[in-house]
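Hi R.,

Here are the chain sequences for the assembly we discussed:
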Amino acid sequence: MALDDRKSEFSFVGTRPNRPDGLDKVTGRAKFGADISAPGMLHGAILRSPHAHARIVKIDTSKAEAHKDVKAVVTRADFADVPFKPGLEGEFWNVLENVMAGEKALYDGHAVAAIAATSALAARDALKLIEVEYEVLPHVTDVDKAMASDAPVIREGAADYSVPAGMHPNVVRYHESGHGDVEAGFAEADLVIEDSFVTEATHQGYIEPHACLGMLGNDGKGELWCTTQGHWIAQKTCAALLGIETSQLRVTASEIGGGFGGKTTVFIEPVALALSRKANRPVKLVMTRSEVFRATGPTSSASMDIKIGMKKDGTISAAQGVFRLQGGAFPGAPGDMTAMCAFAPYNLTNVKQIGYDVMANRPKQAAYRAPGAPMGAFAVESVIDELCKKLDLDPVDVRLKNAAHEGTKASYGPRYERIGLVETLEAAKAHPHYSAPLKPGQGRGISCGFWFNHGGETSVSLSLSEDGSAQLMVGTPDIGGSRASMALMAAEVLGIPYENIRVTIADTATLGYNDVSHGSRVTYASGLATIKAANHAVEKLCERAAASWGIPTDAVKWENGCAVPSGPNAGDFDPRPLADITTHMGSTGGPISGHFEATPEGAGVSFGTHIVDAEVDPETGKTAITRYTVIQDAGKAIHPTYVEGQYQGGAAQGIGWALNEEYIYGEDGRLQNSIFLDYRIPVASDLPMIDTVIVEVPNPGHPFGVRGVGETGIVPPLAAIANAVSHAAGVRMRQLPMSPPRILAALKDNG
Amino acid sequence: MDYHSPANFAEASALAASATGITRFLAGGTDVLVQLRSELVTPDTLIDVKKIEGVSDIIRNADGSWTIGVAATGAEMSEHPELGGDWPGVVEAMDLIGSTQVQGRATLTGNLCNGSPAADSVPAMVAAGVTVTVTGPDGDREVAVEDIPTGPGKTSLAKGELVSAVNIPARGDNGGDAYLRFIPRTEMDIAVVGVGVNLRLDGDTVTEARVSLGAVAPTVLLVEDCAKAIVGSTLGDAALDALAAAAFAACNPIDDKRGTIAFRTEVAGVLAKRAAKIAYARAKGEQA
Ligand SMILES: Cc1cc2nc3c(=O)[nH]c(=O)nc-3n(C[C@H](O)[C@H](O)[C@H](O)COP(=O)(O)OP(=O)(O)OC[C@H]3O[C@@H](n4cnc5c(N)ncnc54)[C@H](O)[C@@H]3O)c2cc1C
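And here is the predicted structure of the full complex:
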């Protein structure tokens, strides 16, 4: 896409005004998913499988239907007949199967039926009246066991064309990439380390549970309010699952209490609509925390083998990785992403990576910030750390020596444009944290991390009001302060104050299609769209000024919020501020607005480097993170505070993932820890102040240089923390989470 | 569900004695209401003890002993000007429970009668030699705290019986107590191991001790071998190692999502040493 409007001097961009949604959120006025009701509304509840794997022999709903408070009961039969296709080609079928079980319950917590009743309590109690007869089947929840020849088959025919012959049917996608000759590279190395690593599934842990209000009439017209990262995908998916026309369902996104990738698909929304269609009344559904853990989210779990060869001077001569990702009972585990990201920070002559997408009897994995990348970085960066230790090399120097830069052929194929990895490493080296002394019992860890970032389909519309204020409609739910960033970018182009711009997350009926708020795309893509839409409006403002002055449009330019003659030859006219033009717009040609609809393709890739200090209690195995510094390339930080917030959030979630968070399954295949008491996300007092350094190497693909920042920040923490803990404990930790029992056991094994 | 708020313990006891199905007393409700909401326990009868006169009182008796009302909260205990001076271990154990919000409701009695082997205040109370007054259809009896829990979620209270007061002995001279728990995080978690230590010194020598372990067996344990290991010592390394070994030997934990057998056993010894050192320093009048 042509970028004729690149900019590097800014008036508004780079400042730190308060977020426009702040007051509503701190006063409790903001409306989240569950904060809505409608006249005649019913409450839904979902019956879930207590078995990890079971054939559903019979569902008898008659007793529930006969109950006076129950207005509708739905099972799979109440949804559309979406065709089954292998792999991700059949994603609508996969989502349908996840939303409501068909022939089999595929994991503990899988929905099998739902009820709408006159109160939430009545709905919950009435679930007990539904009788389900199950034939319990053997189950598997571990990724390595799910690939073994004797593993129970979750679904025949789910694998796509990519899977080599002879693999277990639970292996559903295969990825292989790289370049050079790894065997030759290993032969050149002075030291080769081969090691294996395991990570458990973790949940995104957003505080707001899934919640929605659905209304669907028998005329096929519907309304849906829900907490989501993308209401157009919710619209498209719900329409497909219910067999109605997409445009007949209007979806409005509520304020969102966290998503982190976990709210990029639907769970309860189609169920609420199906119940509503049957009851002919609005139906509200709100998940409990336990339902959130059992049936939404988590990441994949992973098992990985890494082999890296290094020369004495720190040059990596060859690198190879095998990444097996378990993504629940459906295709979609991002084994390909893990493989592609694992070695992406390095300029390698010989590299090879293999990724497997494996099914097991667990909930369908969902995206979680840079899906797949953190696990791979954990394994690869641990081995690099071990090589540095054995060869007595500085871990930052070694990474600098091998760092990818502009023109490097990436491990996953393309050549990089201008990137900022080297700058983050140099900033790490220069940071006081890197040279600060460590106390006894402490260790320091380093890791780099990479994420692709994404553009995606984007529509934005901006309209000017008579008084000179502006309304901006974007279609990407605000999951990290993006309304503030959009307003800053619009203010920059229009030259009017930030406060004079009202940003709204428009519903699906108001704007063209928008992809989900994922892939760190919002500030990049909706931001680019906002700039273009504002430019579009500016063109019209200039036209109006030109007409009033009786000079050609190209003799007018826009400067500091005013139309001015483009030069002395254009004539001598007083500048016309925006409000001066909009006051008269009704009589000079009508409303002035600007819009943008396209798929921006220039999302620049992003890199970060993290420095972590950890202290391990050798008697109990308990880890404290004592210091943490995040250094990441933002291209251009539109609102630096919210960029820092993304960096800190990535580190905080990474600390949880590294130290204590995990899905724990019993022998029976049931999830053991489906509450926050036992699913241990960090509490505030577990975290140190997380320092941040924003590196700005402008992205050539964005007018202001923006790179997405939302995801890269969770890629390095697992590895950086593991390296710090391994140094502090004096023993290499190869399994996440590094919970106290695991660390104490490792210390004992080590003597 | 029937809800009652009796005016005295005799009435509460009579209500409980005649109730059918599942009965729960409602003190702070931080266990009862959570279990209700999550459908773990749906009581048929709920007897609220908070309307009984004096249940929130914290009283120091003439002989130096303390009587704590069954609805006195963790926050009230922490804010009491003198209780923490006498029994810092008991107060800090109670204070570890939950968050500020939970502290405003949670009680010693509820923590004890909920019957969790991981209850934080219970090892501290056992070490301190605390007893409870139990009111039943036949009147009152006094029972040592360690005799109340009989297994996870179970107590020795008979139908119609309830706790009507918590009695903490007089601190006396040269004594100190401490409670430590292990959790993987820094707060808002459940004890993987808990250790209460209470001792008395003559000069530098330990003359009396009570050591109690939580979360390492079906009930909180009073471990006499731990006490024996340090009585007569000045808490030197040998005594501390013997203490850790006795704690290790007394453990009978389970492997579960919260911790492994090996981990709990090992850490019980580590915490016993650390808690003993704190109690010792306190007995010597040092800040710890
Ligand atoms: C967020 C949160 C965090 C928590 N953290 C901890 C923690 O860190 N450590 C910990 O140990 N606990 C913790 N708890 C559990 C709980 O707060 C404690 O067990 C608390 O002490 C219970 O006291 P309560 O007054 O709220 O009891 P209630 O819930 O009112 O009652 C608990 C039980 O005691 C019985 N009972 C109450 N009064 C009497 C009586 N007079 N006679 C006989 N039986 C009676 C009830 O029938 C019930 O079975 C936590 C709970 C929550 C919600």
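The pocket of flavin-adenine dinucleotide is lined by residues B 24-32, 34, 49, 70, 96-98, 102, 105-107, 109-111, 113-114, 119-120, 157, 162-163, 190 (CB under 6 Å). The radius of gyration of chain A is 27 Å.

Let me know if anything looks off.

Best,
T.
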